[in-house]
Amino acid sequence: MNGHVLDELPIAVDCFKNTKNVQLFFLTHAHSDHTMGLTSSWQSKIHCTELTAKLASHRLGVRRSCFQTLELQQDYILTFRNKNDSCILHVTALPANHCPGSCMFVFETDNTKILYTGDVKPNRQLYEIGKDVWGLDNRKIDVLYVDNTYAEPACRLPPPKEAFDEIIRICQLHEDCSIFLGVYWTGHEDLLVEISTKLGRLIAVTREHLKVLTLVGDVTCFTTDKYESDLHAMPMGRLTKSFMQEMNETEKAIGIVPTGRRCHKNHSTEREDCIYYVPLSHHPSYSELCELIRVTGPEKIKPVVSGSCGYEGMASYSRADMSQFNHVISGRCQASPNPFTILTTAKSAEGVAKSTVGRKCGIRNIRKKSRSAKPVGVVFED
Ligand SMILES: [Zn+2]
User: Fold this and answer.
1) DSSP 137
2) To bridge 23 with a disulfide, which of 69, 80, 286, 293 should be the other Cys (CB 3.0-4.6 Å)?
3) Ligand 1 midpoint to CA 350 (Å)
């Protein structure tokens, strides 16, 4: 389970088991390792993005009325109780670029400021938007709960665009084959659309997969008629050597698995029998993780993924040991808060937030609330 009851506040993020004394629940995204304990009988309010609510509701049968949806980059004010006192909690969801609907959370009270990344893939937009949270003019982050999936120096990954191009190149090399693409139930939509667009071919999916794709966005790249295309998307876990052997008994076929799980030992495409393993992940590589920590500059770091064991073959892997980043925090470069060149076309976080002030949030009993020197947000009232 990759969720936590926070040590600092009565808040659970991606954690729906053993939640005694938790007053507020948050969900960063709908992947199964972040929703354990969440079932159709769940009763408490869960705060997440609209798309995560749709996906979690579809996948797990959780009632839609359980979800309190948050817009990205809006400042929300909630309350919790500390003994007999009512305490104010500011919450902002920021894009995480991990999978559809995914977000990070910023929690801020009078006493603490926490950035909880969940699963995250840092990119230019994330750093541009985040400047208004962790920039040098802002209150320092006390605790960073960070995506430590690949917190190991050996974990290197190429930029996603290179991996996309590599997969398309492999498809082009095998135009006489049926091609099976191993994907997660959600999270590889951008890759599938890119493949379909670049190759000018539809991708065959199951009816269940099409339902998920319909929730996420445009489905014009897909078909549920498996005879209409020789490009097939299928669950990654089922794309095995024995499956490919079976396919090759009747036709020429290859499999492609985009995965980061080999990134600690191999940094380029590997072919085993009929399956290509292409390094691609929507988690930060080790260098991306160091950059995220350096830029956000927290006082303290805690791992989102607990435990010391990693993937197969990572015997000495200790991704939960955050002391390995002490040198990154102490060496934070004051003059360079953004690792990327600032995009001249990007809206600032402030600009985006101002443009959404007063927008209908689909929440009953809301009222606008001013926050000094900050974008205006809304208050939830139970
Ligand atoms: Zn995930």
Assistant:
1) T
2) 80
3) 28
pLDDT digits (tens, 9 = 90+) for 307-358: 655 555 554 457 888 988 988 887 654 333 444 433 222 233 333 333 332 2
- Ligand 1 (ion): which residues have CB within 5 A? 31, 119
Of 3.40.50.300, 3.40.50.10490, 3.30.365.10, 3.60.15.10, which CATH number belongs to 4-153+284-380?
3.60.15.10
119 C-alpha to ligand 1 centroid (Å): 5
User: Which CATH code for domain 160-279?
Assistant: 3.40.50.12650
Q: Distance from the CA of 1 to the center of ligand 1, in angstroms?
A: 11
CA of 382 relative to ligand 1 center, distance in Å: 30
CA-based radius of gyration for the chain = 22
Q: How far is the CA of 103 from the centre of ligand 1 (A)?
A: 10
Give the strands of the sheet with 75-82, arranged side by side. Answer: 300-303, 143-146, 113-116, 103-108, 85-95, 75-82, 377-380, 366-369
